[in-house]
Specification:
The complex is a heterodimer of chains A (531) and B (324).
Chain A: H1 6-35, E1 45-46, H2 48-51, E2 53-60, H3 62-83, E3 90-94, E4 100-104, H4 110-118, E5 123-124, E6 129-130, E7 132-137, E8 141-146, H5 148-171, E9 179-183, E10 187-193, H6 199-206, E11 211-216, H7 222-226, E12 234-238, E13 246-256, E14 260-267, E15 274-280, H8 282-294, E16 300-304, E17 307-310, E18 322-325, H9 331-342, E19 350-358, H10 360-389, H11 391-413, E20 417-418, H12 420-449, H13 454-486, H14 489-524
Parallel strand pairs in A: 1-20
Antiparallel strand pairs in A: 2-10, 2-19, 3-4, 4-8, 5-6, 7-8, 9-10, 11-13, 11-16, 12-13, 14-15, 15-18, 16-17
Helix pairs in contact in A: 1-11, 1-14, 3-5, 6-9, 10-11, 10-12, 11-12, 11-14, 12-13, 12-14, 13-14
Chain B: H1 19-39, E1 43-44, H2 46-49, E2 51-57, H3 64-72, E3 80-83, E4 89-94, H4 102-119, E5 124-131, H5 133-161, H6 164-188, E6 191-192, H7 194-224, H8 230-262, H9 268-296, H10 303-308
Parallel strand pairs in B: 1-6
Antiparallel strand pairs in B: 2-4, 2-5, 3-4
Helix pairs in contact in B: 1-6, 1-9, 5-6, 5-7, 6-7, 6-9, 7-8, 7-9, 8-9
Classes of the chains: A alpha+beta (531), B alpha+beta (324).
Chain lengths: 531, 324
């Protein structure tokens, strides 16, 4: 026990120095770290409850994805059958019950139809399962059922796209270091530090921003439209602000939002209303020019998220590939729409199912309170340990102080997040870390009482206590691990500090203090110790 | 320098003798805690019931009734108001809006903000949480699962590492600690939120820690003093570890006390729960779990066998006890 080879001493000191060094950038702040050339070193992230900011949990409505996929497949099947030569006549198409069904009019063409439909399915995932099951019922009807793997794949892709779109939209707000992470099958966690009012952010996320330009169906009977009936090839859409509240438009879109290259908020020169000016890409511009040329004098509808914003008349052909969307916009709503259009439409509807917003002032207050409480706690424990165990308490105090820095260092290395409960974890770790030293020191006291000499008592104290410390820490770690696995954000922050504290305190409280005690005994050879 | 000794050397308190009193008292308190939870219920935070929690900071301490009136007139449901820390900070809790639409939550927050700003210029929302029913159900499920897993996981560890009686005794006393903490929250009606679940898990971890230290000493003494009566042996073990138990509890209570007083309002419930848990955990370590070992009949098996085939790190521990 008293035998501490030089290499061991140096490696213990080296590890501790490393831990403390890693903690420095987090302690002196970002600006100072850069000044002293530590800018590139890893630092601890502050949780939103300390830095202030918003945490949003978004959930996608994935039934939408399934429905849209069915609609797309219907279009695909129709055009595939048209393209076949000879053309395959189909009818009685239905998308009821989540399946796509249609009837092949000529039974002789059934096999050809099934072949072509099979060609429309794809292998997904590692198993290579098809994304649709194709079966024939009643020897005339073809049924396409989406497979579980196919749906999962589609939802997965939609969620990836949605995450990208959300990221682009939030980036356009110009906030610092937002974190946007997919979670589980259908959720996205958005964390934006330092945001005063997340209303603007939520307004951005609430819109799917699916923009379409469609020709208005002027042949439709207004009475039918009011009752929601539209002629074949057309559909009825809500049109707030129009006399009937509804309007019939052609199903086929002239142009969609993914064909634009830019969108920005501007003011109308005549009435100073906020409008959104959009620029189409080459393909979109050409199509828009052609359609407007052919339909001068007729109205077209500008549709956002299946609701008509406006239905202006085409005065002249629009050739420049640019258009303006007007409606009842305020500057803010026009700007939000411009951002949404620029960042693409969301393939799914996102709902905010959890929101936690902390003002920057409260965050700063919490940090201050946390630092004050930790300092007082540390001082109280240090004084208490010293008056109880004297020199041995002093060693424990060095250990517990180093331990705080080492935990901070390891957290920086892991890029962990410090939350308010995490600060509580620190305070608690100060209390529990000295438990190891209490166990050791009490054991040394006991062994001294039994009449052992100093070296033997110290030796036995460390040896016997180590086993207990190990077992106690394992059980403590079990509860910490459970918190880490099942806890939500802030509780996780607590668990991280607790677990790191358990790991590092064994090193500082047992190994490091044993070294200090051993070195002291070796140098001074005391006959008696005051403990 | 004379050092502080909180517990005199060689105490010999007959804890085991008191066990029937302790069991009675413990059972009564635990039943009372359960009854409190059953009758008064827990004041569950928005984390677990869903809804909105707004923390508003006013320039001047406002009159609660006036604030309540302003909010009630909005028709957004029954508001629960509470002064939160400083006199000019008020926490406002509202039930989830009837519509599942997330925009409804925003609308409520905006409405309350506008109404309060009109009556109290300069007021700010320092914090607000909105939790939908779906999320709160998941949080409840995870919280309960975490506590159950922790209790069983650690009890299993105790049974595996020692003997089954240790696991069982630990399980009972941990369940007692958890119930007492819940009872405390039912009694005080302090808000029970996610942080409190973390506190309960930490209490479990700490309380086990305490019991393991004593169990470890009992096991050590069982090997050392093979013929000693189990009751005397447990008393000896508890007495031997008493200085450590008291010392550690006190250091942690010092740290938690600092957190309770200076750590800010947000951590107050957490610190209070932990502090209570430490007291309860220490009590159950001394009076419940070790005495329960007697009732469960630990060491009835021929202990000579144990010594004849020593295993583990303790195998060559010196035996200094009396041989007869």
């Amino acid at each position: 026990m008293l035998d501490f080879p030089r290499w061991k001493i140096w490696s213990i000191l080296l590890i501790l120095a490393l831990g403390v060094a890693l903690a420095i950038p987090s302690l002196i702040g970002e600006a100072n770290s850069r000044r002293v050339g530590l800018g590139g070193m890893p630092r601890i992230n502050l949780g939103l409850d300390l830095s202030g900011g918003s945490h949003l949990l978004l959930e996608a409505d994935t039934t939408d994805v399934v429905r849209q996929r069915l609609g797309l497949k219907e279009e695909e099947v129709r055009s595939e059958m048209r393209r076949a030569s000879p053309r395959i006549a189909i009818g009685d198409i239905s998308t009821q019950g989540g399946k796509l069904e249609f009837m092949v009019r000529d039974v002789a063409q059934l096999d050809a139809a099934v072949d072509r439909v099979r060609g429309l399915t794809n292998a997904v995932g590692v198993t290579g399962q098809r994304d649709w099951d194709v079966t024939v019922v009643d020897s005339t009807r073809v049924v396409m059922t989406p497979t579980a793997a196919g749906i999962k794949d589609a939802v997965d892709k939609a969620m990836d796209t949605a995450t990208d779109v959300v990221r682009r939209r939030i980036d356009s707000l110009g906030t610092r270091e937002p974190s946007i992470v997919r979670e589980g099958d259908d959720r996205i966690v958005v964390q934006v530090p330092g945001l005063q009012d997340p209303a603007a952010l939520k307004a951005l996320l609430g819109k799917t921003a699916k923009l379409e330009f469609k020709l208005v169906d002027i042949t439709a009977n207004p009475v039918d439209v009011a009752q929601g009936r539209a002629p074949a090839g057309s559909q009825v859409l809500p049109y707030p602000g129009s006399p009937g509240g509804f309007i019939a438009v052609q199903r086929r879109a002239i142009i969609t939002g993914d064909q634009l290259t830019d969108a920005r908020q501007e003011f109308d020169q005549t009435d100073n209303q906020a409008v959104v000016a959009i620029t189409f890409n080459g393909d979109g511009g050409r199509r828009f020019a052609r359609v407007t040329q052919d339909n001068v004098g007729k109205p077209f509808a500008i549709i956002l998220d299946n609701s008509v914003l406006s239905a202006p008349n085409i005065e002249t052909a629009i050739l420049g590939g640019q258009a303006r969307i007007s409606g009842s916009f305020t500057t803010e709503t026009a700007n939000a729409l411009a951002i949404s259009l620029r960042s693409g439409s969301l393939p799914v509807d996102l709902k905010v199912i959890e929101e936690r917003t902390v003002g920057p002032q409260l965050g700063a207050d919490s940090i201050r309170a946390g630092i004050i409480a930790s300092t007082i706690a540390a001082l109280a424990v240090i004084i208490f340990m010293f008056v109880t165990y004297g020199r041995f308490g002093f060693y424990a105090n060095i250990a517990v102080t180093l331990n705080i820095f080492v935990i901070l260092g390891v957290m920086a290395l892991l890029n962990a997040t410090l939350t308010l409960p995490g600060i509580a974890g620190f305070v608690l770790t100060i209390g529990t870390a000295v438990d190891a030293n209490v166990l050791i020191n009490e054991r040394i006291r006991e062994e001294r009482r039994r009449g052992r000499n100093v070296a033997q008592a110290v030796e036995l104290g460390y040896k016997e206590a180590s086993r207990t410390i190990f077992e106690a820490n394992v059980t403590h770690a079990i509860s910490g691990l459970i918190m880490l696995l099942l806890g939500s954000g802030q509780v996780k922050g607590f668990a991280v500090v607790l677990l790191l504290g358990i790991a590092t305190s064994v090193f500082t409280a047992v190994t490091f203090t044993r070294m200090l005690v051993a070195l002291w005994i070796r140098r001074n050879r005391p006959c008696d110790i005051n403990i | 320098m004379r050092l502080l000794k909180l517990v005199p050397d060689n105490t010999n308190i007959g804890f085991v003798r008191l066990r029937y009193w302790a069991f009675g008292l413990t059972a009564a308190l635990t039943l009372a805690a359960c009854a409190l939870v059953g009758i008064k219920g827990l004041n569950l935070g928005v984390d677990f019931v869903g809804g909105l929690m707004i923390e508003a900071k006013f320039v001047q301490p406002p009159e609660m009734d006036k604030v309540r009136e302003s909010i009630d007139s909005l028709g957004v449901g029954d508001a629960a108001l509470q002064q939160f820390g400083a006199p000019n900070v008020v926490s406002i809790r509202l039930p989830p809006p009837p519509s599942a639409d997330p925009a409804a939550n925003n609308a409520v927050v905006a409405k309350v903000k506008a109404a309060l700003l009109r009556d109290y210029p300069g007021m700010v929302f320092t914090r607000y949480d909105t939790v939908s029913g779906k999320v709160s159900n998941e949080l409840i499920r995870n919280g309960v699962l975490a506590v159950v897993l922790a209790v069983f996981g650690i009890a299993l560890f105790g049974a595996f590492r020692f003997e089954w009686q240790f696991g069982a005794a630990t399980f009972v006393s941990i369940a007692h600690d958890v119930l007492m903490t819940l009872g405390f929250f039912a009694l005080t009606q302090m808000e029970f939120d996610l942080n409190i679940v973390a506190a309960v898990l930490t209490i479990i971890g700490y309380s086990i820690n305490d019991k393991i230290v004593i169990d470890d000493r009992i096991r050590e003494n069982m090997r050392k003093y093979r013929k000693m009566d189990m009751k005397a042996l447990i008393d000896l073990s508890v007495n031997e570890t008493l200085p450590r138990t008291v010392m550690t509890s006190l250091t942690i209570m010092l740290a938690l006390g600092a957190l309770l007083i200076w750590g800010g309002q947000v951590l107050r419930g957490f610190s209070a729960a932990m502090l209570l848990g430490i007291v309860v955990g220490t009590y159950s370590s001394i009076y419940v779990s070790s005495s329960l070992l007697i009732t469960l009949g630990v060491g009835n098996r021929n202990r000579e066998d144990d010594v004849a085939k020593p295993t583990g790190r303790n195998a060559n521990a010196e035996r200094v006890g009396p041989r007869s």
